[in-house]
Specification:
single chain, 29% helix, globular, binds tetrahydrodeoxyuridine
Length: 136
């Protein structure tokens, strides 16, 4: 696959430094790798109305989609401040699935903690996903 795992993790860690997380102080970074070699990053954006906060993965997917990207998602790295590797929340799994489904890919997800990286496919995190094809 056309991406460097360590570079993708570093991109996610770098994005986490720009998180707006004054309420949780839990800075999360996400980096999306695409088949053309490009990387799009995001970090969490919290809100004084806590429930309106946006996760890092959702911000990254929104940035990519808004730049016209419609598929080609081959890998995702998510970094958090905890020892335990962070896995995308349920909503983010669904949001990632939309972009993956548009290009018919099953991206590798690198869940990164301070001491360990856990690798899985998105399909393992969200089996039997509801996606664009489910509406046809
Ligand atoms: N968070 C993410 O950015 N991604 C996830 O997959 C899980 C949680 C954020 C949301 C909130 O700003 C903070 O982490 C604590 O839950």
């Amino acid at each position: 696959m056309n991406f460097d795992k360590q570079a993708l993790i570093e991109a996610a860690r770098d994005a986490a430094t720009r998180a707006y997380a004054p309420y949780s102080a839990f800075n999360v970074g996400a980096a999306l790798a695409f088949a053309d070699g490009s990387i799009v990053t995001g970090s969490n954006v919290e809100n004084a109305s806590y429930g309106l906060s946006l996760c890092a993965e959702t911000v990254a997917v929104s940035k990519a989609m808004n730049d016209g990207v419609r598929g080609g998602l081959i890998a995702v790295a998510v970094t958090g401040p905890a020892v335990e590797p962070i896995t995308p929340c349920g909503r983010c799994r669904q949001v990632l699935n939309e972009l993956a489904a548009l290009g018919d890919t099953d991206p590798l997800v690198l869940c990164v903690g301070s001491e360990e990286v856990r690798e899985t496919q998105l399909s393992g995190l969200l089996p039997r996903a509801f996606g664009p094809a489910s509406l046809t």
